[in-house]
Amino acid sequence: MPTSSKKALISKVPAKHRARQAGVKKAVMTRSSPTSPLAHAQRPVVKTSKGFISSVGRRKSSVARVRLFAKGSGQVLINELSVDKYFSLPDYISAVFQPLQLVGLDKAVDARVKVAGGGKAGQAIAVRHGLARALLLLDENYRKQLRPAGYLTRDARVKERKKPGLKRARRAPQFSKR
User: Fold this and answer.
1) Quick one: how many helices (H) and strands (E) in the chain?
2) Angle at Cα 32 formed by Cα 57 and Cα 103, nearest 5°?
């Protein structure tokens, strides 16, 4: 039971913050299938009036914002360019299409991606991560294929920060005996 001091603190919260908190609690939620291992977890339903599913993929300092159109011909545009024009190396191009090929939708969906930050390698993996997450929102059953392949896991390795007194993150200045 809250004490009077806690009630006083709650009443001091501005009305706009209380309304925001109440709106968060009313978010539309759905349960995954009862047989899935995540049956107890609630996932937000992503519905857009524009006819696409949006998700975000990340790798190092790259961020890819993905819009997946369920009805399409397999066209993927990255920053308004085709994949072949944006990524010059075949490894990067194949990385982008891996989740779509795995679930067999490489010719059935379209994707528009805006990617920024980092280098081309990080951007390619960020796009792959974003596409995999969007496919998961399209159909939860794709998790069985995408998770073992590692496309849903966010690679958290980033560059370590420089420390004071050191030349780099861990590289110390050369020691001089005299």
Assistant:
1) 6, 7
2) 50
Report the pLDDT value the prediction gives residue 45, as an integer from 0 to 100.
Answer: 47
Cα angle for residues 65, 152, 66 (degrees, 5° grid): 15
C-beta separation of 99 from 153 below 8 A: no
| DSSP SS3 for 166 | coil
Q: How many C-beta atoms surround the C-beta of residue 131 within 10 A?
A: 28
- Name residue, tokens 């960020």: 126
How many C-beta neighbours within 10 Å does residue 65 have? 16
Q: What is the pTM of this model?
A: 0.71
Residue 28 has pLDDT above 50, yes or no: no
Measure the CA–CA gap between 164 and 154, rounded to whole angstroms. Answer: 29
Mean pLDDT of 127-131: 97
Identify each DSSP E strand in the chain by its residue range: 29-31, 42-44, 52-59, 62-69, 76-78, 81-82, 110-116
Q: Please name the helix (run of DSSP H) or strand (run of DSSP E) that holds residue 150, with its range, or none.
A: none
Q: Residue 38's pLDDT band (boundaries 50, 70, 90)?
A: very low
